Amino acid sequence: MQGYNYGAIKGNHMILEEFVSYYHKNKNKKKQVKEVLLNWLKIELSAFPQKNYQKVLHNELILQDDDSVVPKNKQGENLLNSLIRITTILEEKEFESWTNNVKPKDFLHA
Fold it and tell me: Domain limits at 25?
């Protein structure tokens, strides 16, 4: 297909897998998933890139002085949007898991 950079797609997939793995190891009930994402991006973008996914992150995103993460180009914009979408999916899955364990009587007051 024209217009698709399959190398970038593979790189994005690898990055999403790395973030999800990091999230599962570091999730915290007090932190929102997007906070965990920002923390992970700060760690990754502050370190020298050694692995392929880190090199892609450094090529596509930049950590600003105010600790915000911004894309360097269109691929970086797509990557950041994909990471944000995955945080939404993780939040929805956690909520779904929580609601499966809740019964209506849990909301009744004695």
Answer: 6-96
